[in-house]
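so i finally got all the pieces together for this one. its two components total, 497 residues if u count the protein bits. some of the lines might not be protein, just check the labels. i wanna see the whole assembly predicted at once instead of chain by chain like last time, that was a mess tbh
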Amino acid sequence: MKSTRIGLVATAAALALTASACGSDDSGDGGSGGDGIKIGIKFDQPGLGLKQGNDYTGMDVDVATYVAGELGHDESDIEWVQAPSSQRETLISTGQVDLVVATYSITDERKESVSFAGPYFVAGQDLLVRSDDDSITGPDSLEGKKLCSVTGSTSAQNVSEEVPGVNLQEFGTYSECVAALVSGAIDALTTDDTILAGYAAQDQYEGKLKVVGAPFSEERYGIGLKKGDTELCQQVTDAITKMIDDGDWQTIVDDNLGPAGYEPPAGNPPTPDACS
Amino acid sequence: MVDILRNYDVIGAFWVTIQLSALSAVGALVLGTVVAVFRVSPVGVLRLLGSLYVNIVRNTPLTLLMVFSILGLTYILHLPFSESASRNAYWWAVVMLSVYHAAFVCEAVRSGVNTIPAGQAEAARSIGLTFGQSMREVLLPQAFRGAIAPLGSTLIALIKNTTVAAVILGTAESAGTLAEVTENEGASLPTFLLFALGFVILTLPLGIAITHYSRRLAVQR
């Protein structure tokens, strides 16, 4: 009997705690919703969106900071949210983020659930090889070579169509591919050239890796936002146009992807599409 | 949902899951039984080896074993099964699933051995059977019958753990195909439910059969 009573008290206390925690959470959200802005980025892509401790670096981070600045938000008002590829649509449609700047290619399928501003960059699928390897010049020269990509990624699917029967090893993340490439166990890694340049630009791989520079697809990176919000879309598009015209775009690209000797492919800087 | 079945080889992916499960189940059963015999043997060194194996393998994450088989064993120690990356990953996945679940099979079989009254082992030895003979003729047959329920749980866990092979095997297997579908179509509840249903179809009848046979085959004492 006594233990039942103690249990009841404990349950009541736990309920009270959860209830109060909910309450404070709600008010917190309401407060920051007014002046803050929540932006979804990648947390694990060097050169594009990378979280190290409390620092965020990369091209997407710089683009997002610039655009947020144009929308009237200080850098300190930005709340960075991790946006893994598979969750980007959900994060936007449920309102957990205001913008997504996360190597987000504009495609017709995605336009069914979100709206895009941009593109702010045109990337292409390319190959990363060891810098002393001149035998690979593009997808045509992959015969008999070992190639690496990430399980189920668009890049892996593209290259399987482009070069049927390619000897493809798939891993969970690109980091494993890069490690195997440096050690010589595989010959090439394929995905968007921006991601490749980001890895090649990391300190520990400096001078060891190079991007081949023969893109065989076109990925138009846009800024994802809530479907149908043309007002916000127009503001973001204006910000991108200003960023390109000011020369800030060039600075951002050079700072983040330049160290690997990477040159943006043809079509850059892009002209953003009209909002609809 | 129908589109997904039409555009992606979901059935083929589950067929690979079944292959991985069946091959690894055989591998784990054989290896696990050997380790279990080590653990109950009268030789101290073998008992030590057995418990070292179980404690090391059981406490290592399966993902780590999988990635190690490619980055470590294939690339650094040059132990590939095949020149083709996907075949190599397939066979290493089978090996690693076998090695990992052998530790659990070993403990299940050992628990089965422990259900047998000590008098039976003593009786077997006293009529002149060697350790090997008494294991084969008296102890293991009863141990397996007593261990059907825990062995069945290990088999169900093994079937679901084949999804971990996606980290090296790519889209050939069901979890890899799910990653591909999610990449192309966006994450959606029906897709997840479709793949979850696939696993339920594989494991639920198995669970019912195991419960049935664990009752029917249990040694009555």
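The two ends of chain A are 67 Å apart (CA to CA).
Chain A touches chain B through 27 residues (CB under 8 Å).
anyway lmk what u think
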